[in-house]
Amino acid sequence: MDKADRKSSARASIKLGELNYTPVLIALAVVLLTIVVLFLWKRKKTVRSAVLFTGLCDSGKTYLFAHLCLGGARETFTSIKENVGCFKTERGRVLKMVDVPGNERLRGKFFDEYKNIAKAIVYMIDSVTVQKDIRDVADFLYTILVDKATSKVPVVVLCNKQDETLAKTETAIKSMLEKEINIVRQTRRSQLQSVDNSSSSDTFLGKSASVDFEFEQLGQRVRFVPCSAMEEQFAGLTKFLDTL
Ligand SMILES: Nc1nc2c(ncn2[C@@H]2O[C@H](COP(=O)(O)OP(=O)(O)O)[C@@H](O)[C@H]2O)c(=O)[nH]1
Ligand SMILES: [Mg+2]
């Protein structure tokens, strides 16, 4: 009896050893591959790869875009559609550049379309007309800075047209904007409170309503860089692009 038991257990172990594991291994490989593909697909969808050129109309976005991406100044055209191109940094990295139309009706729509793939934002300002247009300039910048989708994205406020004698310096523009943003956030808060009594902390920029707004209060890095696209003075911008 003892002998027979040993014999049957030996047969069982041989059978286990002879089992064909191939289908199990194939199934495991398929599952693993699916997980990897799903992971890569999801990552690709949210990958931040573009530098957005935004700002009001006539600040020089398309002019600079043409210079950086098409290799020279071209006659600029009224942009009703975005322009997409590539720029090679000094270190040899190729960045996708998107010139977002600044037309009042379209800029919000285009910004929403591209904000999730933004790696950096270049907010272009016409340094000559900035004082006259300060409300609009501050309002659109506020919209961008308050947006959660781009809250970790670095912003360059590019103070263009520095070749003009009446151009304001980047330091003057920065303090002008800080003052105006105080007013913009006040206006937005009261607008929000009039339609809805809930907290408006989602759309509040800066420390608190009782403290004057300063760009340094933001977690997001905002740099003010002088530029003259026309005279090809944009080393500050290309240096920044090289860090991306
Ligand atoms: N003086 C001066 N004019 C510029 C400069 N950059 C662009 N412009 C002019 O500003 C105008 C508007 O430029 P554009 O690129 O169409 O502005 P966009 O609406 O922001 O795309 C054009 O007439 C350009 O020639 C600059 O650095 N200096
Ligand atoms: Mg344009």
Might you state the CATH topology name? Rossmann fold
Q: Return the structural class.
A: alpha/beta
How far the N terminus sits from the C terminus, by CA atoms, comes to 78 Å
- Uncertain stretches of 5 or more adjacent residues: none
Number of domains: 1
What order do the strands of the largest sheet run in, or round the barrel if closed? 2-3-1-4-5-6
Ligands bound to this protein structure: guanosine-5'-diphosphate, magnesium ion
Order of helical and strand elements: HHEHEEHEHEHEH
Question: Could you tell me the strand content as a percent range?
Answer: 15-25%
- Give Rg in angstroms: 28 Å
Largest sheet: 6 strands, mixed
What's the overall average pLDDT, rounded? 86
Q: CATH superfamily assignment?
A: P-loop containing nucleotide triphosphate hydrolases
Tell me what the CATH architecture is: 3-Layer(aba) Sandwich
How much helical structure, as a percent, in the residues? 40-55%
Total beta-strand segments = 6
